[in-house]
Amino acid sequence: MSATNLGWGHHYLMCPPDHFTVEYAINPWMTADEPVDPKAARDQWGGLVGAIETAGGKVSTITPDPDLPDMVFTANAGIMADGVFAPARMRFAERAREPQLAAQWAAGAGYEVAEVGAATFEGMGDALPFRDRLIAGYGQRTKLRAWSELSENLGWDFTPIELRDPRFYHIDIVFSPLNDRSALVAPSGLTSAGLRTIKSVVPDPILLTDDEAQSFSANSIVVGETVISPAASPRLRRELERRGFTSVIAPVDEFLKAGGAVRCLTLPLDIELGVELAQIA
Question: What is the pLDDT of residue 91?
């Protein structure tokens, strides 16, 4: 059976790394022992923008806040689907204001801003669409209850997946949709039940080794038939090419110091799940 390309992933919101530093530790990757090189971070961020545009994608930008060094990771700010933005509720106080600024940007750009529940959830870092549903992580930074609250409020269909390893604290580090049949999947970050669930939904998963997972290979984005990754082993490149993808590497080593890579730096704006908010209301 032939696969169909993703209908989304051609328009992303990104935040320039003007104020990006590692000032605190809220995941196992963050350490003050490796200070960020500001010039290298700007160059790598610009390289990712260039890779997206070369592949045929578009990038919009939000103004960074000098008091929010992690604002550069726009994927965590909320969930954007069907022209509706659901602002995240961050687990850590250091990032609590980011969703508010993203909601202001979304409203100014003409998107509808939705009401969300009280439970913690970290945006599209923990929710990525596959076909007509959102594969949604919980157990590290997001509460399971958040997905039932959002489903009730917005009508989106969530498939919850428990994350078991603190190194892989968001679903976007262990799961990345490629088309309507395939996805990158890192079993080492999932419970056995979570892996079974993903295999039941994804007909043709590419299972990553632990080394590939730790290099954030699953934290990739797809623009048409181009997969933009922070790293890809020769084996992974062959698997992607066998499925008709072109593999492009966008080094983001400076951002890995904060536990984020390509997917973390990008919030897709063009997802369509086919749910009308007015119908839910």
Answer: 96
